[in-house]
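Researcher: Good morning. I'm working through a list of sequences from a screen, and I'd like to move beyond sequence-only analysis. For each chain I'm collecting a predicted structure so we can compare shapes side by side. This is the next one on the list. No need for commentary yet; just the structure.
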Amino acid sequence: MAAPSGPVTKERLKRYRRLKEEIERQGERLARMESAIESPPKVLDGTPHSSFAADRLAIAVARKIALEDAMLASLKEEAAEVAEIERAIQLLTDPQEREMLRLRYIDGYEWADICGQLNCSWTQTHRVHSRALQSVLIKTS
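Model: Good morning. Structure tokens for this chain:
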């Protein structure tokens, strides 16, 4: 298996995690936009506002399209980065280290959940994490 293109550091793994969180927030924002577009506010005062409403709808649709484009770019970046990270994780020989990095950075688990998943104490979990980070950095440098 080929090594990833650059070293996999803790900072790189954290950036990947933040990218995933950003994509989730973009998805939530997109859902709110879609909801607003599908059910625009109704004008109840009886005056003609069709031009104004059409303009607002056009602006909302344009913003939605721009967000979709940004999300697509983020998703492409995320897919490339997860492939690189997964290649680095596959280079590790210790299955517990591989699982640790996947749980923390790819799946986004919190430390307490990782302790439960790995059936380890808090201290042992962090030792495995530290060892995994050192191993993956050595193998990808």
